[in-house]
Give the backbone structure.
Amino acid sequence: MDQPRTLFQKIWDDHEIHDFGNGYSLLHVDRNIMHDLLGALVFEPLDKRGIKVPNPEFHFATQDHGIETTAGRTDETKIAGGKAGVQGLRRKCKEYGLTMFDLGDERQGIVHVFTPEQGIALPGSTLICGDSHTSTIGGLGVLAWGVGLTEIEHVLATQTIVAQKPKTMRITFEGKTAPGVTAKDMILYTIGQLGAKAGNGYVVEFAGEAIRALPVEGRLTLCNMSIEMAARYGMVAADETTFAYLQGKPYAPKGDVWDKAVAYWRTLPTDEGATFDREETIDATKITPMVTWGTSPQDAIGVGGRIPDPDQAETPERKAYIERALLYSGLKPNDAIDGTPIDVAFIGSCTNARISDLRAAAKVLKGRKVAAGVEAWCVPGSGLVKRDAEAEGLDKIFKEAGFEWREPGCSMCVSLGGDGFKKPGARSISTTNRNFENRQGVGVRTHLASPEMVAAAAVTGKITDVRKLTS
Amino acid sequence: MTEKFTTLKGRAAPLMRANIDTDALCPSRFLTRINETGKDGFGGFLFGDWRYEKDEKTPKPDFVLNRPQFKDAKILLARDNFGCGSSREHAVWGLKGYGIRCVIAPSFGEIFFNNCFKNLVLPLVLSEAQVEAIAAQLEPDGGEVTVDLEAQTVTAPDGTQFQFEIDPARKEKLLKGLDDIGITLERRDEIKAWQDADRAKRPWIYLASA
Ligand code: SF4
């Protein structure tokens, strides 16, 4: 009998070309996803050596990070150097024969949105991308992680990467989540419990009943934010839900090959008796709709909670930490977070801009209006999400409520593309993944939450428990 | 073209905060400037929001790198979790472009940590107490710190030496200034053979032949 292995270990073993014997291995990279920030720069080592990309079909590119999300957009970006990136990447993809979903193609979208949508990411494969939220793709049972430009250069030239083997952690969710609790709440709660550093050096597998119950898009949301607890990789084992999601996707296998693939995928989940370096459990029944109060995703509390008081902090470091975060976020200790007035509501990003996210927000928005003075945006994650949403009439619900309905891209997740909120230093409630200082523009104070919670805040003008509007 | 990292002696600057993230190291709006400056010219954007006033030109006098005794530092000291946040390598290019070749902190964000080695910048881990001890010596007049990679020592301005740990493979790469792509390309045949076997096992991965 073979040693029981974890999902991670099986994928690692099936991609290891060479073990350097010091914790590092040369791994095969099945998929590399590129975006406009890389520009032509990432091709420099190939240009210099005069070599080709060995497997062009393993590489996909799009424009998402620096582009604008306004109707009628072009290559022009308001950000200096952005246009050179967009055009440089396009030119190089053509030159090296790589697939690009360019502006104007309905498959264009945020890297971590189009990758599952097209069936480019498949269970048991390895995938890299120059964006730390590549962990998203682990929701399909993929070993997917964010890398830097130098590593992408290496993958383009060799189809491999030198990777350090991470330690393994399993986070098991016990029990069922309450109605109205989303994958976003589950991950914010988890980060709040374990802290922003808990996953450093680990690959995290999410397991348990509440995870199995999540649709694929929820699993993507969950894994998206594993990097916010410093885990480069988050994973959910592929199951029937995953197979049903992938079947028929453009780049997913067909016919006999599909059957063969599914048979292989079924062998991948963690074996009974396999051990992890660290095990954590989360009581899923305790989770409520979440929202952040500070400048790190770990500053997450239930919407019924209160802003922490630095004077109650357990350590001087914690006290200084809370004080600094509150100084930026402009909130008062011990206040209820529910009822905090907001200026901006943003629905978008690779965390929460898939069709199910838009549907969930639209359900709250239907028949309601965005509160006076609130600037509200919806940026679908890809051209296909946008098309599908429009086919269902979701765009009308958003627009009638008073939301801007924009073109796909990263937009105000990262505030690169010339997009910007009107009010300086606005208080924003956002479906994105980072509430760092200045992330959504200079001085903008970001509260992370689910699409439902953002919709609820948009119509009430303040942070609101969405369950008050839906039940 | 090969640059190496052997010893480094120079001014050290204490930026004693925890969780300095990559957005602080390189504010998002500067990312695409790399298409204009290239990697080496990126130092001007390091700590953009902390270093300059809103006009992006006028130095904020209180920021550590703007204080005369810390200007042009080659070594930076910080608290826990330095470089947390995104995978942007710009954070490292900014440091390196500025001339900072070594950051000393009790812990680092993982991706940032990896990216440092790829750019021959040394993320050096000392205990919290050791980092604080060196930082205390740098105030108020500044001082020089020496990092000897071969010996794995850090020497504080007062001559106190601290030993540090580093992965041997990473140490060797820094010492020799090795080029990763060149090394891997020597395994071209091995990679090809691996793919041929893998293609039989997982044909769905190989889109061109499917
Ligand atoms: S939406 Fe944000 S986190 Fe996601 S890929 Fe774009 S910039 Fe990165």
User: Anything to note?
Assistant: The first strand of chain B starts at residue 7 and ends at 15. The mean pLDDT of chain B is 93. Chain B touches chain A through 58 residues (CB under 8 Å).
